[in-house]
Amino acid sequence: AVVSTQSGHYGRDRLVDKMRHDLKGQYSANVFTDAAIDKIKNRGEDPFFMYLSYMNVHSPYQAPDHYLDRYTSHMKANKDRKSYAAMMSSMDEGIGNITKTLIAEGIYNNTILVFASDNGANVGYCKDTEDVEGGVVFNKRNKQRIEPGSNYPLRGGKRSIFEGGIRSVAFVHSPLLQVQGRTSNDLIHVVDWFSTFEDIISDGFTKPPLYHIKNRPPSDSISAWRAISQGLPEKRKKYRLRLCVDTTA
Q1: Cis peptide before 57 (omega within 30 of 0)
Q2: Is-contact 57 17, C-beta < 8 A?
Q3: Phi/psi at 131 (nearest 5 deg)?
Q4: Residue 146, beta-bridge partner list
Q5: pLDDT tens digit string along 72-85?
Q6: Closest Cα to residue 144, out of 123, 122, 126?
Q7: For labelling, which of 44, 181, 216, 237 has a CA lying 20 to 30 Å from the CA of 22?
Q8: pLDDT, tens digit, for every residue of 127-144?
Q9: Is residue 154 a contact partner of residue 167, using CB atoms and an 8 Å limit?
């Protein structure tokens, strides 16, 4: 099994099998975690791939009180910063419960967990029409607050082409890794997960998956599985960055 979790990505109605209108008032991270655990417990006999995209830590910055209470004593100045930390705790607890389910179901030793983010955190200032707590007010007509994220020591954040915007943390966890407990600074692009997952599900990681016979379109994706699992040098050495500038704005 391959379980991929991604932080900070919001869903679309067309990506769900059936819209649920009975979940009002429930925290989305808990709903997603419960759904993931239910899918694992009722998976059947076939191998599976699960893509779990929490809304944490995407704005709006909200969390149940029992998570917020953990940070009340030492994060009084900025309510968004406290909510941000609480959202992280909620997501961390959810992933932990999913991992416990994999162990209880006896499939943990044959599962690969991938945690990734699509971009760096929001940083700097943003407009706020409500009363600001711990933020910065530049004038009476235009209140602004400090974004709670941080990409230190990298420069910039989401929507920028500096490393703080395009470089994000990730980890891969599995008993199937031949080399474990290491940190990699190799270059891996988000599109590389596609070929990496192809490698993981192939027969013994020695030949392409059977569906390769279906002439799929070529891809820019480069598998990073051997670099991740064996500690070998990463194949990717560069990637293309396309800048779209609207000159009419």
Answers
A1: yes
A2: no
A3: -60, 140
A4: 125
A5: 888 777 788 899 99
A6: 126
A7: 44
A8: 554 444 444 444 444 555
A9: yes
